[in-house]
Amino acid sequence: MALSIESVHLGSVVVLAQDRFHDERGFFMETFRADHFRELGLPTEFVQDNLSRSAKHVLRGLHFQWDPPIGKLMRVAQGRAFLMAVDIRKDSPTAGQSFGIELSAEDAKQVWAPAGFARGFCALTDGVEIQYKCTGTYNRLTEGSIRWNDPALGIAWPVSDPIVSQKDANAPTLAEWFAKEESMHFRMA
């Protein structure tokens, strides 16, 4: 099989390793194959593909969506980036815990983070391209974010002064999000 689970974090964030087939022309790699994902117990129904390009030291996140809840399969297609997933399921035994990993286009790895996780990344080189497959379609009315530098999360981002959007800079902390979620009477995944 060209795809395997390399490691599992926070109970459900999965790092996948893949084979690449190289020759003098370059390489070939299957980035998704439903039968292999099914065999590994991973989702096989993705309804939206996204591509993000970022300059060096741009940090995007931590983003999520609650209606529909979205899981994301992420990979670095160009350059090198630090990918992050934070468990924002209030009743989860790993609520508030995070997992981060540095990946590159060269290592041919992917990260699966299911619904109930806020995700983000920091570009470590210029022209970083992140491709991600989503299990739900984007709904701007039900998107949310958690502040990337929330002290309670203790994330050791690899860049001390990243470039962030105004929206990400003003995002609520996880505690503020939990309070808002409680007042809205719903739960993430």
Brief digest:
Helices cover 11% and strands 41% of the residues.
Protein architecture, described:
The protein has a single domain, classed as Sandwich (Jelly Rolls). It has a six-stranded antiparallel beta sheet with strand order 1-2-10-7-12-5, with no helix packed on it. The chain has a five-stranded antiparallel beta sheet with strand order 9-8-11-6-13, with no helix packed on it. The protein has a two-stranded antiparallel ribbon with strand order 3-4. The protein starts with a strand and ends in a 5-residue tail after the last helix. A hairpin with a 3-residue loop joins strand 1 and strand 2. With 189 residues, the protein is mostly beta strands. The protein is globular. The protein is built from three helices and 13 strands.
**Rg, Å, rounded:** 16 Å
- Percent strand: 35-45%
Order of helices and strands: EEEEHEEEEEEEEEHH
- State the CATH architecture: Sandwich
Structural domain count: 1
**Fraction of residues in helix:** 10-25%
Helix segment tally: 3
Mean of pLDDT: 93
Question: Which descriptor suits the 3D outline?
Answer: globular
What is the CATH superfamily classification? Jelly Rolls
CATH topology: Jelly Rolls
Looking at how many chains there are and whether they match, the oligomeric state comes to: single chain
| Largest sheet data | 6 strands, antiparallel
Q: State the CATH class.
A: Mainly Beta
Low-pLDDT windows of residues: none
Annotation, overall tally of beta strands: 13
SS class: mainly beta
- Major beta sheet, strand line-up: 1-2-10-7-12-5
